[in-house]
# Entry
Amino acid sequence: MIQALLEYQTVDAKLKAIETRLSASEDRKKAMVAKKFLESVNESVEKLDAKAAELTQSYKDLALRQNELLESVSEYDTVAETCGEDEVEYVHKKAKELEDRIVSMAKELKTLEETIENIVAQYNTLKKKTVEAQKQYRECGAKYNELKASVQEEREEITKKLAAMEKTVDPALMAKYQAKRNDKVSFPIVLECTENRCPACGMEFSLQEVNKLKTNKIDECENCRKLIFVK
# Structure
């Protein structure tokens, strides 16, 4: 049964090589990066829109308050022209307080303007990156699909052959093998024990482990997790 599994592994290694080639494709990686960006871009735009709306409203409210203060200063100036000398100082003092607040508001408005400009710049950058990502996803995705199509026939042939070979392998051994395959243990997954050592990582087995291996015929290397067998 071990021999049947080894023969299965030899054919499966060809399928693994194709899978590795596809997953290592630079076009695939670039397409995935672009796809991930495009999937998140709407959320980024929504956040920028919300922030821009908030800042715009704050700017309008602050500008309105500033205009109201300017009108109040004008009113104080008018009052100062008609009031007595003992009241002029008080009126001028209030007018000065309003003017100071107006200056402070002007600084706040300037800060808001700069922040809004920054939001607009971020939006323009995001728009540019979106166009670039769309192009990258389209072009790299097409190239990756071409690569997949070029190996599709070979993959199908190997898959059919493996399905037939699997019937000749002990189900328990196949279950162990497939578990390692799914855990992405590197090929070859199944190796013969040599001189009481794991041929993959070189770890020396204890006498107890050797006896267990001889009894079970196949076991897992605790170090590299490959399946080791003895004939």
